[in-house]
Structures are given as C-alpha cells and as structure tokens.
Description:
9 strands; two-stranded parallel sheet; alpha/beta; 7-stranded parallel beta sheet
Amino acid sequence: MSVWFVTGASRGLGAEMTREALDRGHSVIATARDASAVLRAYPHQPDGLLAVDADVTEPAQLTAAVEAGLAKFGRIDIVANNAGYGLVGAIEETSDEAARALFDVNVFGVLNTLRATLPTLRAQRSGHVLNIGSVGGFATAPAVGLYGASKFALEGISEALHGELAPLGVRVTIVEPGGFRTDFLSKLSVRVEPASIADYAAGAGPVREALAGNDGRQPGDPAKAAKAIVDITEVPDPPLRLQLGADAIDRVEAKLDLVRRELGQWRHLALSTGTGEAV
C-alpha cells in the first residue's frame, strides 16, 4: 500500500482522492488550511488518515506536515498537488493583487510542496508526483486567462520535473480535468474580478455568464475522476498528461488541430528565418 500526501484535501477533488485512496487501503497525509474539515468527513478517524493543518503558501507548515507524515507512516509515495482556486476576469480587468495571490497558491504553492516532499521521494528513489492542473492549462479562454496562465505554468513545471525525476525513479503526471461537479465554481473556490471595462463585454462576457450559470451542472463525476487518478498511480508506466472528461478531450483536440493548421499555413515563414547553413 502507498502513502499519499494530498494538499487541499478538505473539499472537491482533493477530498475525493483522499476518500478513494483510503477505500483502497492506502494511507493519506491529508493537508488543508483547516484540517478539522478533513476529520469531519471521517468521524471514526481511520488509522490510515493523518489530517494536518498546512497552507501551501507557508513552507514551514508544509515541512511540519511532511515530518508528521514520516513520523507516522515512515514514507511518502504519492504527492498530489491539488490545492488551488479559480479566478474570473479579463486580463486588463484583473488587479495585480488578485493575479499575484492566484499565483502564490496555484504555482508557488506547488513549488513549496515539491520542495518539502521531493527530498523524501528522491531518497527513496521511487514515488509519483500528481500535479492537478486543468484543461484550461492546455487551452484557455477569455475571462479565465490568468487562471489558465497559472495552470500553463504548472504544465511547464511538470514537463521539466518529469525529465529531472525520471532518472531517480520518480514519476510525474499532470492531470487536466474538464468540468467536474465539485464546488470549484462556487464562491468557495473561485474569485471574480468586477467587469469594469465595457469593451470586454463581447469577448469575456459570455464566458463570465456561462461560468456563473454552470455551478453544479458540470458534466464530470468527481468520484470517478478520483478513481481514474488513483488508477494511474497503480500502473507501471503512467502518462505525463491525463485528461479527464469528454469536454477536456474535445478542447485538447481542438487546440491541437488549430496548432497543426497554423503550423502548416505559416511553415514557410518560420523556416525563412534560418541562416541557411548546415547544422
């Protein structure tokens, strides 16, 4: 059985992953800003669960959570970087404060967690890092560009990390969910910047309205998503990317088609920039 380290384990996909892992007999170090929210879901406190207060923007708290987990379980096998939130607003409408706060959690929070956990995985020469991204980190849209940018950053981190950790026996997967019926679109998990610039009503407005009306209507089942995520940790050769949901597949395929068309259309211009010398 494996030992999981899950951030943002009190709600949404983090809570579902914690439940699925425990149901399969794994142990879980479940971190959240308020660990009591995790414990409320498990009144009998199973032996395999250790709930720990840890804000991903506070490195010392993450270090303490890792130390507590190692003291109880002796190892960490799966690191699930799940903590994060959404941000709605056109790029120009989004304040510097809101953008920096988003990246502090969605990007630097992941880096803090990796710095706290990777020494253990490297020493073991085994393990699996799961970075919970979004299909919006592969193909973003108006009104969610900065959220998408934070998840694009996670894509780049994951690709590089994959190459850096593979020789050490540690695997990396970035998960790209589409819309899942969690509380992600509620006020608990998404922040909305005011629509302050009328010129963006046409470009960003429809996405704003769609997101506002889609809470609780997303097509994905979070319990099935958690099952799929735990499944890939139990295979010998997991993917670098895992899309979840038909909507995620559609968006990825549409972007790949667009990139291929533009690459073909403008290939001559791209190739015209070479020196002409043999390499």
